[in-house]
Amino acid sequence: MSHHLVEVRELRHAYPDGTLALDGPTFTLHHGEAVALVGANGAGKSTLLKHLNGTLRAASGEVRVGELPVQAETLAQVRRTVGMVFQDPDDMLFMPTVLEDVAFGPRNLGFPPPEAEARARVALGQVGAAHLAAKAPYHLSVGEKRRCALAAVLAMGPDILVLDEPSTGLDPRGRRLLVGLLQAFTHTRIIATHDLDLASRLCPRTLVLHRGRLVADGPTRAILADRARMESWDLEAWPPEA
Amino acid sequence: MPSLAAALLDLRELDRLARLDTPVHRLDPRAKVLATAAFLATLASFGPREVSALLPLALFPVALAALGEVPFGLLARKTLLGLPFILVLGAFLPWVDRVPVLQLGPLAVSGGWLAFASLLVRGLLAMVTATALVAVTGFGDLCAALDRLGAPRAFSQQLLFLHRYLFLAGEETGRALQARELRAFGRPLAPREYGAFAGHLLTRSWERAERVHAALRARGFDGVLPARAQTAFGTGAWGFLLGWSAFFFLCRWLALPALLGGLLAGGGS
Amino acid sequence: MADALVSAAVGGSFWALSGGALAGCSRRLRRDEDERRVPLMGVLGAFVFAVQMVNFAIPGTGSSGHLVGTLLLSALLGPPAAVLVMGSVLLVQALFFADGGLLAFGCNLFNMGILPALVAYPLVFRPLDRRGHPAAGAILGAVAALQLGALAVVLETVLSGLTGLPFRPFLLAMLPIHLPIGLAEGLATALLLRFLRRARPELAAVRPEPAGRPLLALVLGAAVLTAGMLSWAASSRPDGLEWSVSRVAPAGADAPDGAVHRFAARLQRRTSVLPEYALPGTEPAGPAASRRGTSLSGLLGGAATLGLVAGAGWLITRGRRILRARPEA
Q: Computed over its alpha carbons, how large is the radius of gyration of chain C?
């Protein structure tokens, strides 16, 4: 693929009980861009993210990753391109050791075990977690788990990183580490978050979801600072009033 | 069963021990599993009133634990947890069989007492050995060993997932119990509450499983975990397995303590 | 069931039986190809493990009960998956909590996994549930499963012949003990199913596939065969223990043959004659007397053996400590 971008057009998704979780958001992500996705609880952020790697399939509308429409036949390729870091790292890490876990994705991509392991070690190095390789995932701190989960995705060599609430549960030091890491990446990044400080540090552009609709798409600082509009979306302005 | 918190602590402690690096830890896990199986088979093959003949077998768990740096305090504690059941059942035996079979000076020991002692020794040996095995092998390696010894892949995979989510489920349940206790002031859980209490935990588990599944799919999972790194069954493993098997065989067919005791008694008289 | 109560023959047979069932269930699941089940089984196994330690008050009794979970898992995931999940839970308990035991694992999986999932679930729970009585199905199903389980424990113990507990009184003690346990299990299962079907109908609506007939038939056949064998033994031979021991474990109670053993016996005879301990009125040359003699020397030897083993353990620990200390010094 020459240019890595994500196109979402008129995406609609309804929950089994009939609630419309996504009501037609339309946007495009460009190569290497870092975009924040903000919105109150239940605004549809996680649902939107799940469409980007095909965990959920669009009821109507379209999601394209690069040249590929996200549909059953393209799932394997889409998931190789779009790396999804889940909100709760415990949902991701399950193998007996961190190294095996990080190598899990590459092995499923068909790499022979030594090569998968080598990729895993590189990815662990990228997130500063090489020393955790032999540990069991359930004995790690939240910050360590999150970095390992990030490595698990990086090891698959994605072009696009999708992160769901990456700073939840981190202490200030862990959060600083994470911001530093994410800043250094050149991947196209889309970050769903309540952490507006993180959004303003990492992402020049912000999308705002409100009740399933895309209500704002533009420069982060301008959007986050617009007190009246932010409050109308059940959010608070950033930076807060002095 | 121990309390939830104690159970989780023990799980963690055994996990920590399993990551030590000693010669027994480095052995192929299959050798340890097979030797343990031979041990248990030997132990179970003794007759109901054997006591002293079982004792040499203790060398196996003791050697495993000592070489693998397993604290004996932990072994003793784990073993005490399992004793009550044996004690309750065993307590009936002296009444069932009162025929004296052994005379110690003025004291006649009935077959029931001998059988009781035998049960105790068996129980202790079996429990100590199981604990020592996990402590020097680790659960992941045990699963891999079972897998390579021919256990169904669905089962070894299930064991891995279960062990992984034990900690989370245990902590979640513990937190929920604690939160309830803070408002319940010692009032026991009524059946009506139980449905909702355990039901919430169940739905949360279910939702977790769905997220785990989504995460697995996102990384290309197709229903089967990749096999773990393969190690060769080396000379060390063969030596361990054959050596111990020979020892068990010796224990079974030669009453070593009787020989020893005979020598001692004969020498003394 | 505990390791201490199981003889090699009984432990091995039930390992084979339960192992076969486990393999059968795994094959059935593989054919099913719903990989959603893989994490679900793991996470629900962890749930069952944790929730087994949550006790609730049984109304009107002052005692408390808890969930075992096989029937619930059968209703949620289908019997084959339930057998696999219970197998994993029991194995973890045997390994980490000295609960049950490795040798008795086959027996325990049979009693607590296979009987409820492959017998009580399809024969009691499902028919009642389909007719709209899930609570009755859960309670009757659990009681049936626990009674069968108690019977199986008695059979396994008596067949093992390590305790000498007589079949009938033992059974008559075990069945009533397991009645309230079964009621509690049924109650817990019914409550959880009701909660789930009300709160999250889409989860509870997952239709588990039916248990295969051949597997069920196999298990039932084995159970009936064992029960028949044993009741015959118990009625025709008052001394069921001796019979089962001599029948099941021929090398168990009696001295084994062989050149090595003959040599050992000769050695023992020569070295361990302790006439002062013989009871008056028994033939000095009889097997009973020689047994007493060897038993005492066995006691002596046992103490000496324990001393040796403990010494070996101490030496190893000590040696390792010294080896480890050396590089630092």
A: 25
Mean pLDDT of chain B: 85
CB-CB under 8 Å, B164 with A94: yes
The single residue listed with the structure tokens 């129980």 is B123
Find tokens 């079972």 and name the residue. B146
E strand or H helix that includes residue A28: strand A27-29
CATH class of the domain comprising C3-247: mainly alpha
- Specify the DSSP class assigned to residue C3: G
pLDDT at C250 (0 to 100) = 37
Q: Least CB-CB distance to A16: which of C39, C42, C202?
A: C202
In angstroms, the CA A154 to CA A161 distance is 8
Find out whether C51 and B201 touch, Cβ atoms under 8 Å: yes
Neighbouring CB atoms inside 10 A of C24's CB total: 19
Q: Which residues contact B177 (CB under 8 A, 6 or more apart)?
A: B4, C54
Kindly report the CA angle at B79 between C311 and C91, in degrees rounded to 5? Answer: 120
Domain residue ranges of chain A, discontinuous segments joined by +: 6-232
Pinpoint the alpha helices (H) of chain B: 4-18, 23-26, 29-45, 59-67, 72-90, 93-96, 111-137, 139-148, 153-184, 191-218, 235-253, 256-268
**Domain A6-232: assigned CATH number:** 3.40.50.300
Q: C38: Cβ–Cβ under 8 A, 6 or more apart, which residues? A: B157, B158, B161, B213, B216, B221, B223
The 10s digit of each residue's pLDDT in A108-126 is: 888 998 999 999 999 999 9
Q: Which residues contact A58 (CB under 8 A, 6 or more apart)?
A: A11, A12, A13, A51, A70
The 8-class DSSP code of residue A87 comes to: S
CB contact under 8 A, C163 and B47: no
Please tell me which of the candidates A113, A137, A156 has its beta carbon nearest to residue B219.
A156
Average pLDDT of chain C?
A: 75
Asked if B203 lies within 8 A of C200 by C-beta distance, the reply is yes
Would an 8 Å CB–CB cutoff place B94 in contact with chain C? no
pTM, two decimals, is 0.82
Contact B24, B66 (CB under 8 A): no
Q: How many helices (H) and strands (E) does chain C have?
A: 13, 2
Over residues B129-158, the pLDDT tens digits come to 999 999 999 888 899 899 889 899 889 989
Q: How far is the CA of B257 from the CAs of A13, B49, B111, C34, C123, in angstroms? A: 75, 15, 19, 56, 52
Structure tokens at B125: 């040996």
Question: Any idea which residue has 């059979």 for tokens?
Answer: C155
CA dist C275 and C279 (Å) reads 9
Percent pLDDT > 70 in chain C is: 67
The amino acid that residue B105 corresponds to is G
- Residue A126: is it exposed, middle or buried by C-beta count within 10 angstroms (0-12/13-18/19+)? middle
Read off the amino acid at residue A17.
D
**Are the C-beta atoms of B237 and B31 separated by less than 8 Å?**
yes
Q: What are phi and psi of A217, to 5 degrees?
A: -155, 105
Longest Cα pair distance anywhere in chain A, in angstroms? 56
3-state SS, residue B146: helix
| Two structure tokens written together for C17 | 């039986």
ipTM confidence score: 0.90
Interface subset of A 149-188, CB within 8 angstroms of B = 152-153, 156
DSSP string, A30-82: -TT-EEEEE--TTSSHHHHHHHHTTSS--SEEEEEETTEE-SGGGHHHHHHHE
Interface residue A45 vs chain B (CB under 8 A): no
Q: Do A108 and B221 touch (CB under 8 A)?
A: yes
Please give the interface size between A and C, counted as residue pairs whose CB atoms are below 8 Å apart: 3
